[in-house]
């Protein structure tokens, strides 16, 4: 039987958070959301392994120079950031220390800024500099700490810009359109399910083992894996449009 007091606590807490999962005593406050957060860690590992495999294939195909490249693969940083999203989310949904908001929001903000900066570099034909994504992220840290609601809105703004730039990238990269469309569709479905699962919304059931926010974790992590091959395309000129 569900403890009515715990259920009420879960609903109150859900008003301030993304989900409505029943809050548990112990190390994991929201077990389902905590464990599914690790989908981002798995996604980061998958991206890194695939990038290394592609790097080895490219190296084997290049018979003119067998020296290893000193330049790090652009997906290495991306993979690390994606994994960091999972760690930060696990911290918030698990032990939930006082600094959990920063642990959760900062990696997600960095990933959004990174994707947007990479798309902007592709659109302008330039290599992205680290400050393209680090600058906006650092500028928003005080907002996340001092005004969490405003920080959430700022993240939405960064997400909108990143999506717009990525859609524009699909225009100049016809071969990447299906991949980008698939990634955005996964994010859209995950975001819809997550939103409808907030406290007071139709899909919210605090005692259910199937949580909408957990679904968001899995679909968002999958979308980042699908999107990964588009990262770093600024080093390759886009195909010329047919006249």
TrEMBL record:
Transmembrane feature ranges: 32-49, 130-147, 153-171, 183-201, 213-233
UniProt source species: Cellulomonas carbonis T26
Protein known as: Ceramidase
Superkingdom of origin organism: Bacteria
Keywords on record: Membrane, Transmembrane, Transmembrane helix
């Amino acid at each position: 039987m569900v403890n009515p007091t715990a259920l009420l606590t879960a609903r109150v807490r859900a008003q301030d958070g993304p989900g409505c999962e029943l809050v548990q005593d112990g190390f994991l406050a929201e077990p389902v959301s905590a464990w599914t957060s690790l989908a981002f860690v798995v996604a980061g590992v998958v991206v890194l392994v695939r990038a290394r495999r592609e790097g080895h294939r490219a190296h084997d195909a290049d018979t003119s120079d067998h020296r290893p490249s000193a330049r790090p693969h652009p997906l290495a940083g991306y993979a690390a950031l994606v994994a960091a999203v999972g760690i930060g989310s696990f911290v918030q949904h698990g032990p939930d220390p006082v600094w959990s908001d920063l642990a959760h929001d900062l990696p997600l903000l960095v990933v959004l800024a990174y994707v947007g900066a990479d798309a902007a570099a592709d659109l302008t034909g330039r290599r992205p500099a680290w400050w393209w994504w680090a600058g906006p992220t650092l500028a928003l840290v005080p907002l996340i700490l001092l005004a969490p609601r405003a920080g959430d809105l700022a993240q939405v703004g960064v997400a909108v810009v990143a999506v717009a730039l990525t859609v524009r990238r699909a225009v100049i990269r016809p071969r990447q359109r299906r991949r980008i469309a698939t990634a955005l569709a996964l994010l859209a479905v995950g975001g819809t399910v997550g939103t409808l699962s907030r406290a007071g919304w139709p899909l919210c059931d605090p005692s259910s083992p199937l949580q909408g926010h957990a679904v968001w974790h899995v679909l968002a992590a999958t979308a980042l894996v699908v999107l990964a091959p588009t990262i770093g395309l600024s080093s390759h000129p886009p195909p010329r449009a047919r006249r």
